[in-house]
Protein 1
Amino acid sequence: MQFIETRGNDTLKPASVPFSKAILSPSASFGGLYVPESLPKLDDTFLLDHIDSSYRDLAFDFLKLCDIDIPDDIISEALKRYERFDDSKNPVPMHKIEDDCYVSELYHGPTRAFKDMALQPFGYILSYLAKKHDQKYLIMAATSGDTGPATLETFKDATNITVGCLYPDGGTSDVQRLQMVTENAKNLHVFGVQGDFDDTQNALKALLASDEFNEAIATKDIKLSAANSVNFGRIIFQIIYHIYSYIKLLKNKEIKLGEKIYLVVPSGNFGNALGAYYAKKMGVYIEKILIASNQNNILTDWINKGEYDLTSRDLVQTISPAMDILKSSNVERILYDKFGSLRTKELMDDLAQKGGYALTNDELATLREDFDASYSTDEECIAVMAKYAKKGYIMDPHTATCVKSYEALKDEKAFAVIYSTAEWTKFSPVVAQALGKKFKKDLEAIDFIKEKTGLIPNETINSLFNKQIIHNKIIQKENIKKEMLSIL
Ligand SMILES: *Cc1c(COP(=O)(O)O)cnc(C)c1O
C-alpha cells in the first residue's frame, strides 16, 4: 500500500510514500493528508474464511492484504496489545439490543474509550519505527478528554518517544483528568491549560507553527509526529472492527452473506466513519453509513444538504464532548476519494479562507450514496439513555446520539450496528442523570450507578481515585511554549 496526498503534490515531497513514512510524518503537501493509493478487495471468501477467526487473526490477515511496510512479527506484536482489553480473544463484544440491532462496544481497552482500538496497536508500531530509525519523536496532543489518556497509555515508557499532552483545566470529566495526571512515566508530560478546548488546541497549533519551537526541536534532533486521526496509522486499525461487525452478524446467523447492513457511527473527527467507508469500498456489504452528531451538527448539514459552513456556527458544549467538533479533519479524505485532489484542494482552501463551501447537487448525490446523517439534542440523548437503562442496557451519551438514526430505519428490513465509543464510567454524571439523579462529581455518580444497576467499574477506573497525582501543573496558554521547550 502506497500513500498519496489529498491536495495534490507540491513536487518537494515525494509523489507517494509507504505506510511507515505516512505515519511518521503525517502532514502532506499544501496542508493535506495521506490516503491509500488503492485499497485491497475483501471478497466473499475472505469474509467466510474468517467466520471463526479471533479478532486478532482477522486483523492480521487484513493488514497482510493491505501490504504495509511493517514486518509480520511487528504486526503480530502490535496486535497483542488487544490482550490489554477485557477479553483478549474478543476485544470488541457485540451486544444485541433490538431484534435488528447490535451495539458494537469499542471501549473495552485500558482507557475505556474507543481511542484504544487504534492507539494501542498504532503506538506499538510508531515506537518500533522510532527505535528502528534511532530517531527521537515528539508527539503533541491537545485533548478534550479521550485522546489524551489513550495516547499517554500507548506511549508509556516507549523508547525514543516523548509525549506532551495538553487538556483544558475544568473541561474534562474527573475520570478523564485523573487518567492523564496520574500516568507515571518519564517520557510523559501532562499540563492543564487555563481555558477551554479551543484555546488549548489553538495554543498548540501556534506552538507547532512557531520558529522558536521548530528550531529548538531541530537542534535537539527531535522530529514531530501526530497521534490524532489525521494519522493514517490510526485509520487503518479503524477499518477492521467494521469488517468484524459484518462477520459477527453472519456468524450469529442474523444475516446471509451478501445481505446489506447499516452502520451507525457517533462522529466528531470522522475517523471512525472513514474506517467504515473504506470497509464498504473494499467490499463489506454495507447499505449506508449513518453519521450521528450532537448539536454541533455540521456533519448533518454536510451530508444532508452538501453545506459545510463554519461561519454560521459557534461550538456548543454538549454532554457528548468528544463530538463537540466543527472542523472535522477526516472529511477531507472523503472529499478526495469522491472528487479528486484538485477539487479537494479547492474546497479545503474555501473552508480555510471563506469559512465554508457547498457541494454541487451531483457531488451531494454521490456523497449520499454512502452516507446519511442525523443529530440529537442533549435532552434526546438523556431520554434514549433512560429508555435503554429501563431495558437493562446502560450506554454513554455519545452512543446515545446513534439511536435516532437507527429508529428512522424502522421500515427497512435491514440490520443495524451501532458503535458504542465510551464506557459509562467516563461520563458517569450524565449517565446518573439519565437514571434519575444529578451529581457534580464522577465518584458520587459512579457509586449511585453501581447501586442502581449492579454494574461494577473496571479496576482501572476504581483505582484512579486513590492514585498519586504526578502532573499537577496548570499553565496559562501564553506559557505553553516555555513549558514545552523545558520538557525537550
Ligand atoms: C473520539 C470519539 C468520538 C468521535 O470519533 P471520530 O472518529 O473522531 O469521529 C466519539 N465518541 C467518543 C467517546 C470519542 O472518544
Protein 2
Amino acid sequence: MGMTLRILLLGCILHLASAQLRVGFYSSSCPQAESIVQQVVQKKFSSDASITAALLRMHFHDCFVRGCDASILIDSTKSKSSEKDAGPNLTVRGYELIDEAKKNLEAACPSTVSCADIITLATRNAVALAGGPAYNVSTGRRDGQVSDSSEVNLPGPTLSVSDAAQFFTAKGLTLNDMIVLLGAHTVGVAHCGFFQDRLSNFQGTGKPDPTMDPTLAARLLKSCGTQSRPLNKDPTAFLDQNTSFIVDKEFYNQIRSKKGILQIDQQLALDRSSAPLVSRLAANDNLFRQSFANAMIKMGSVEVLVGNAGEIRKNCRVFNKPSSRAL
Ligand code: HEM
Ligand SMILES: *[C@@H]1O[C@H](CO)[C@@H](O)[C@H](O)[C@H]1NC(C)=O
Ligand SMILES: *[C@@H]1O[C@H](CO)[C@@H](O)[C@H](O)[C@H]1NC(C)=O
Ligand SMILES: CC(=O)N[C@H]1CO[C@H](CO)[C@@H](O)[C@@H]1O
C-alpha cells in the first residue's frame, strides 16, 4: 500500500472514530451504565467525601499518559512495571471504587462499558456531589493495551506556569484550560514533601517563600517539620485551606490571598500570563462552573481510543490479552 493511501486511510479511521465519542453512548447497549456508576460513587461519597479529589487526580493522570484509556488502572506484574508504580502515581487513590463499579457493570452488561469511561463518569459524578457543576460527558472510550511506568511524564509542582503549560499544550489543551483545571486543587491534599521547600529555607534563603502568607507558612512548618519522610508517613495539607471538600471557586481566592500550597498554584495567581483569568474566576461563580465543566470535558477527550481500537477490559486492573499483542 502506498504511503499516501495509508495516511489517508488512517485519517479516515481516526475521523470515523472521533465521531463515536458521544453523550449517551451506552443508552441502548447498557442503559443503566451511568446510573450504576452514579450509585457506586454516591455510596462512597457519603462515607468519604475525599473520593472527589482522588478521582479528579486519577482522571488527570490517566488522560496525560497515553490519553484517557484507563492505562493508570493496570497493576504491575513481576516482569512489567505499570503506570501506577511510577513516582507521580504513588499517591493516586480510588482504585477500589473503579473495581466496584466495574464489577456491577459486568454483572449488568458484560464486556460493554470501558474502564476509561468509568473513570470519566465517576469523576463527573463526584464533582457534582461535592458541589461542583453537573455536566454531561461523552462516552465511548476504549481501554488501552499498554501501561508502562517509564512513560509517565507529568508536570511537577515547582514548574513555572509557562513550563507547566507546555505539558497541557502538548495534549491539545491551552494555558487557560490549565488555569481552570488546576481549580481541581479546590479539593484534596498534598503531602508535605511536595511543598516543604517553601516553608523555611526557600531556595537557600533561610526564609519561607515570600509568596506564601507567613502565618500559613508557620502553621504548615509546624505540621510538616523540616525532615523528609517516605510518602506513606508524610503528613498532608489541604490544597484549599478554606472549603477543602467543596468544588468551588474558593481555590482562586485562596491563591490570591497568598494561600496556595503548591508553588505552581501560587504562581498561577502571580504570573502575568495567568493572573487575569485567576481573578476573573475568583470573582465569578458561573464563569468558574461553566469553565470547569468545559475543561473537564476537554481533558476527558485527550487522545482517546474509540471504535475498534483497544478493548473493553473485563477487569480494570489487567489487560484481556497479553499486552505483547498490542502495537
Ligand atoms: C501543572 C499541573 C499539576 C501539578 C504540578 C499538580 C501537582 C499535584 C501535586 C504535587 C499533588 C499532591 C499529591 C500528593 O501529595 O499526594 C496534587 C494533588 C491533586 N491534584 Fe494536581 N497537579 C496538577 C494538575 C492537576 C489537574 C489538571 C487535576 C485535575 C483536573 C489535579 C487534581 C488534583 C487533586 C484533586 C489532588 C488531590 C488528590 C488527593 O487528595 O488525593 N491536578 N497535584
Ligand atoms: C444533559 O443531557 C440531558 C439529555 O440529553 C439534558 O436533559 C440535560 O439538560 C443535560 N444537562 C446538562 C447539565 O447539560
Ligand atoms: C471561605 O470561603 C467562603 C465561601 O467561599 C467565603 O465566604 C469566606 O470569605 C472564605 N473565608 C476565608 C477566611 O477565606
Ligand atoms: C496505589 C498503588 O498502586 N500504589 C503503588 C505505587 O507504587 C508503589 C511502588 O512503586 C507501590 O508499592 C504502590 O502500591
